[in-house]
Amino acid sequence: AQKVTQAQTEISVVEKEDVTLDCVYETRDTTYYLFWYKQPPSGELVFLIRRNSFDEQNEISGRYSWNFQKSTSSFNFTITASQVVDSAVYFCALSLPGGGNKLTFGTGTQLKVEL
Amino acid sequence: NAGVTQTPKFRVLKTGQSMTLLCAQDMNHEYMYWYRQDPGMGLRLIHYSVGEGTTAKGEVPDGYNVSRLKKQNFLLGLESAAPSQTSVYFCASRLSGGPYNEQFFGPGTRLTVL
To answer: Chain B residues with CB inside 8 Å of A91's CB?
Structure first.
């Protein structure tokens, strides 16, 4: 069975600080996909990024970057120069082939960015 | 395109009452999902569908039923609501194919069972 762990329940930072959200996953499959979603205070879930198990290249998109390391089963998310608008709950999720390609979510990390 | 819509946005039920939550998508997606979100537990899958006329159980299916009579709609039913079903319910849809396709989520339905 697969599992996603987000050990950080809540993180508070001051604006312009860098912050890293941790995600550790468990699966016996060799083919899988990892996702990050953002849930702002308005409540909707917004897709941020996907990564497949065969692509360990790090990804950068503006102030966001993702570090995928199969050796430690981690897919961490870093926000550089955080802003108040980054305040949200961030979810990491895992999807396997077949069976409806269901998403297994972590419990989420609440990020609060203060002035 | 409206994307994924959910009806209603809020609802208060009394224990034992029944209700149906409607999810509609206009993206011609094959796959649809119902999740519930509870504090400290992330999102958990209730039921899902890989196509019109098909449904399958997820992680927490007890107390819920679903139907997918039309490709664009996925209904979630509570036959006899219980306080433990107080939650925020999210519907999602995605294209068929591999697990690389992201799910698109609706705005959620906040349900309170008294």
So the answer is: 42-43
Distance from CA of A14 to the nearest CA of B (A): 24
Q: Which residues of B touch A50 (CB under 8 A)?
A: 100, 102
Give per-residue burial for A10-38: e unless 16+ CB within 10 Å, then b. Answer: ebebeeeeebebbbbbebeeeebbbbbbb
Residue A58: Cβ within 10 Å count: 13
Q: Tell me, what's the pLDDT at B2? A: 83
How far is Cα B92 from Cα A62, in angstroms, rounded to an integer?
27
Q: Does A3 touch chain B (CB under 8 A)?
A: no
Contact residues on chain A for B101, CB-CB shorter than 8 A? 101
| pLDDT (tens digit per residue) in B54-108 | 999 999 999 999 999 999 999 999 999 999 999 999 999 999 877 788 999 999 9
